[in-house]
Fold this sequence. Notes:
Largest sheet: 8 strands, parallel, barrel
CATH class: Alpha Beta
Amino acid sequence: MAAGFAQEFSIEGTRPGLDEIAQLGVILPRGTQVYVTAVPTAAPDETVAAAAALRKTGLEPVVHIAARRLASEVQLKDLLARLRGEADTRRLLVIGGDIEATGPFADALAVIQKGRLRDAGIEEIGIGAYPEGHPRISPARLEASLDEKIASAAAQGLRVHIASQFSFSAERIIAWLKQLRAGGIANQVKIGLAGPTSVPALIRYAKRCGVNASLRGLMSGAASALIGNVGPDRIIDALAAAQGELGDVQPHYFSFGGLVATAEYARKMADTDLAAPAVASSR
Length: 283
């Protein structure tokens, strides 16, 4: 592994409990960004409590805001006020949410434009992107939407990073990143990676999330014969080797195999990466 790529990372958890968060505080470096997903059945109290527990543990909460699930502007304002007041939340991931709009926000761009995020104390937002494309959005529209969101956020003084959907193809991720940089987008990209889990589980999540191109490789005879949990080691090695031409990129781990197990894997990869220069220099 080339040095530097895996040392800083973020991790995504679905409905993290207090016990899990306490374990994360032991495993993860202080200040690690932990994303709290927008689960439709999770009440605001649960989301705020998770963000507050992460902050208290010394980690940095990044809360998903799903635009189409917001019933009103007042609901968004109240949620942001609680996140800031109770969890000192400064970062969000703003997504559309794959449902019909239930309120005034048709998409993530609408939240960025009309949500008064800076007034609520938000300093940085993440926006979603798709190395393998989106099953319901054309490549041209995805590209234009990314530009619009970045420009709108920057005009309001918000820092912007890109958080990508996971992929099982290092080649596709690298090609997408090069295309992104060639188009003039220099923002930090958090590369979505599926944390260690079983091949059947990976296939299930890939189908659910529309990751079709690299799913074919995962379902090949060699991959499906694997036993036990599979981590993204090969992808990390490929991205680390190519990082000089990819700009500011970091791993972003999806915790399909469990939040604590994914945190342990991410920390292991970071520690291995940190030790790499010392090993190389001793030869």
